[in-house]
Specification:
By secondary structure, the protein is mostly helical. About 80% of the residues lie in helices and about 0% in strands. The protein has one domain: Up-down Bundle (Four Helix Bundle (Hemerythrin (Met), subunit A)), CATH 1.20.120.50. The structure holds fe (ii) ion (FE2). Fe (ii) ion binds next to α3 and α4. The site of fe (ii) ion has 6 residues, from α3 and α4. It comes from Stutzerimonas tarimensis.
C-alpha cells in the first residue's frame, strides 16, 4: 500500500520535511516498480533510496551537532543501525533474493516511527539554534549599518 504523507509527519523544518517526502516517494516508487516485475528497476530504486537516505542522515546529524542537541550521538547510532540493515537488504537483493516486500514493509514502518518519535525530538534544539544564528546575523548587520550611518 502506498505510503501517504500526513501532517503528523511534518517536523516543521522545511528542508527536513522535503527530504523526508523524497524518501517516502522512493518507498512508493519501490512498490510500483516491484509490481511491474522489473527487477533491474527495483535494484536501481533500492540503490537510489539507500544513497539518498544516507546523505539525508548526514544532513540531519550535522544540524544536530551544530545545535548541540543532547541526543545527537544516540540518534547517529540509530541511523547507523538502520543503514547497516538496509545495506544487508541490498546485498541480499543482489544475491538474487526477493527482498522488496520485506524492505518496503520495514522502511515504511521504520521511517514513520523514526520521524514521529526520534526526529520530532531534535526539532526544538535545531530550530532554536537556527533562530540564534539568524539573530546573530541581524545583530552583526545592524552593527555594520550603524557604522555606515554614523
Ligand atoms: Fe533521523
Amino acid at each position: 500500500m502506498a505510503l501517504v504523507w500526513t501532517a503528523e509527519l511534518d517536523t516543521g523544518i522545511e528542508l527536513i520535511d522535503q527530504q523526508h517526502r523524497k524518501i517516502v516517494d522512493y518507498i512508493n516508487q519501490l512498490e510500483e516498480v516491484d509490481r511491474s516485475g522489473d527487477r533491474a528497476g527495483v535494484g536501481k530504486v533500492l540503490h537510489e533510496l539507500l544513497d539518498y537516505t544516507i546523505s539525508h542522515f548526514a544532513f540531519e546529524e550535522n544540524l544536530q551537532e551544530e545545535a548541540g542537541y543532547r541526543f545527537a550521538k544516540p540518534h547517529r547510532k540509530v541511523h547507523e543501525l538502520f543503514t547497516r540493515r538496509a545495506k544487508e537488504y541490498v546485498a541480499n537483493f543482489e544475491a538474487g533474493q526477493d527482498v522488496t516486500e520485506e524492505v518496503h514493509g520495514m522502511l515504511s514502518a521504520w521511517l514513520v516511527n523514526h520521524i514521529k518519535r526520534d526526529d520530532a525530538d531534535y526539532v526544538g534544539a535545531v530550530k532554536e539554534n537556527m533562530q540564534h544564528i539568524i539573530k546573530e546575523k541581524e545583530r552583526k548587520g545592524r552593527g555594520w549599518l550603524s557604522r555606515f550611518f554614523r
